[in-house]
Design goal:
Layout: E1 2-7, E2 13-18, H1 39-55, H2 60-85, H3 89-124
Helix pairs in contact: 1-2, 2-3
The protein binds zinc ion.
Zinc ion (ZN) is lined by residues 8, 10, 12, 31, 33-34, 36.
Amino acid sequence: MVPVKIQCGCGQKYAFEVEPICGRMPGKVTCPVCGRDGTRTANEAIASQLAVQLASERSVHNIMMVFAVIGCLTTGIVGITKALTMADGVNVLLCLLGATAAFGMALAVFLWKRDKSAMNRPKLRPNFPAR
Ligand SMILES: [Zn+2]
């Protein structure tokens, strides 16, 4: 789950946790006070949260990974934006496939890094109990 905090244009702050699909909101989110659409802000919050989670590992290698993930996410968003403005059905499909691949790559890198750091963690503990 990723914590998302949103400050609406009306001044209302609201927060929630979400399981992102392809690094984005699985559905729409609206301000509880004025009903304004906050989905785009939420998507930006998720992207930065994912980046923060990766950056918390604190190494140059991980920072490079963060940029790779952000690059892939950006590619995916651009792909979807392009697909939405296209009229031809085949082009839309190709573009969406490209966007999905970019998102998938970002997700794969993210999960791979998380698994790897989880595996390394016990070795870093000096007081790991020996039998
Ligand atoms: Zn509002």
